[in-house]
Amino acid sequence: MPMPNKILLITPPFTQLNTPYPASPYLKGFLKMHGYDVFQADLGIELINKIFSGEGFQELFSRAKDTQKVLSGNSHHIISNEQYYLQTVGQVMDFLQYRDNTLAHILCSDTFLPRASRFDQLPDLDLSFGNIGVNDRARFLATRYVEDIGDLIKDAITPDFGFSRYAEKLGMSAHSFAPIDDALRQPDTLIEVWLLELLQKSIEQHRPAVVGITIPFPGNLYAGLKCGQFIKRAAPHIKIIAGGGFVNTELRELSEPAVFNYVDFITLDDGELPLLGILSFLHGEADTGALSRTFIRTGDEVVYYNADRGKDLSPSETGCPDYSDLPLDRYLSLIEIANPMHRLWSDGLWNKLAIAHGCYWHRCSFCDTTLDYINRCASTPAAVLVDRIEQVMVQTGQSGFHFVDEAAPPAALKELALELLRRKISISWWTNIRFENAFTRDLCRLLAASGCIAVTGGLEAASDRLLKLMNKGVTVRQAARACRDFTDAGIMVHAYLMYGFPTQTGQETIDALEIVRQFFSEGLIQSAFWHLFTATVHSDVGIDPGKYLCTIAARPAGRFAKNDLVHEDPTGCDHRSFAQGLNKAVYNYMHGIGMDLAIKTWFDVRVPAVSVNKDFVERAIKEGTAFDNERLRSGVLWLESLPRLVHCDPANKREPGKYSKLVFPTRTESFTLTTRREVGQWLYDTFPRFSAQNTAVMTLEELKQEHEKRFAAPFRSFLRSKEWKTLREKGLLLI
Fold first, then answer.
1. pLDDT digit string (tens) for 255-272?
2. Is 53 exposed, middle or buried (0-12, 13-18, 19+ CB in 10 A)?
3. Which DSSP letter does residue 610 get?
4. How far apart are CA 224 and CA 221, in angstroms?
5. Cα dihedral angle (483, 488, 490, 496), rounded to 10 degrees?
């Protein structure tokens, strides 16, 4: 075997069509720091480009016409329009990959794109996109075109196909490896033939000694192992390492030796230290006892080694992600639904970075809080993070960032925003947060000024009783005020919602939907999605179900995946019966439809009457409409240009020269503050110390001390003055 200096990192199908999954760029950046030649391949996006090509469509339609399967009427309709699909696929891809935006008008015509079932229930396009949103309308219609072809593939080629997953059902609750093993032995589908051709091309091009396969989701498991199977047959000298999110949650108790017919090593948690240990072992510099968080097969047994127990790299030591050899011009920007917040998941190439490792709260009872990716929290210093932002922008040519944190810490976000403003770096970014009190009106304004366009966060069951039982650490009122502060700052908000938590009643579920309706009606959120609660091995509910008055069914026997648990809820509520109504309601709310309809309208089953007040959320946000209390330790920050001082005489000629004006030129307006000359001069002299360009922002305590040196009046009187209130209203921040 050659020395393992050349490494190929692959992402198997499928994760996202619009942007790379960040695992391989992170690991490539780290391994390059340690002297390795590292290459990466996103086989998912390469496969999509293979499918959506003239050659791919010809083969796809040929196989679909020759299939022995009984096809749906929709598939027959698509096949009958083969010539039009072959004629248009190149132009659709050119448009979705931003090579030719002039195609927007023709894509929007009623006769250019062939249309199947995905076009049957289009929203009102004029309402959704207006008369000037031609590019967005075209992208929305082109997305439907892509989805139609996906339906044909599922019907005629393989039911396992999906644009963000492949053979996902095999990876879901896979206690036994036997069904996966059996599936891997079946003849390859057309999709798999193409996948393996692309893999072979990458191996021949890079000739690696080691291949790393990330398996972040159940929908990547089968394809990842398929890649391992091919490598074992075609290039048995190559060593294969598997890791990723699915492995980290599902395979912590792995004891199934058969999986090692497809891979050589399986690693847990962050991959940097395990990879270094494996590479050192392959170099002959260490034995298996030096491996870190790694499973291997020895004989017929699976053995776990963890020589570096308790040793973890800080975020500063992992290096900058490297996107340099990914086909960034081949990703597709799609619009799946006409909602400006929801589209962020599918539209645009977002550079992925993390502000912090883990979750600073790590107490929610439904979350996998015992696992490393949640319970070990460490923030990246703002200066280091912004250095990486600049490097990644050079690599990709893109200035949009999705910070993929479990929950970005408010303090770290503040420092990030200040560092971006100090360096005058303009980016757009979004991230996941907790709807907590720390996100004040002023902090949200600061984040918006630094480029924040959206946040996502868990509103969960929208019930104070259940939020307390979940140990969420927030109330509905607190969440409402945080959402108000974000939206007032121009930041879009998406809410993750949960139903079916232990002891949750049907009444609480219906009341939660009413609370969500009010959040939408008040403009506090722009997007939301419901998830059915599932107990997991690594959550507090799974560890101590008695605390939540539920029981856990006996775990199925098996030596492979172990994470999801079956729990029994003593309330006897049929939570699944609410699913369709909850999703239907929120889908309409996201489009501004049905806000005034009774909650029961959305359900086909009888549901309880709403018991929360219709103005609950309105009153909650009014309780916090005043500015946040001025805390002396807060920094005073002015994000606009410095004022100009003009001395003037008032209309009252008996007091000449006693007044002055501060003229503030902002980006959107100019305003004038008239005040007594001595106050005006003091503010004029002090304002430079409020600038974000300062490495240390002046605090309110320091401002108080300066005021007391110059004026006899108490500082609290200044905080009540018209001048201070005007400055606060116009954007003077306390952070």
1. 999 999 999 999 999 999
2. middle
3. P
4. 5
5. 10
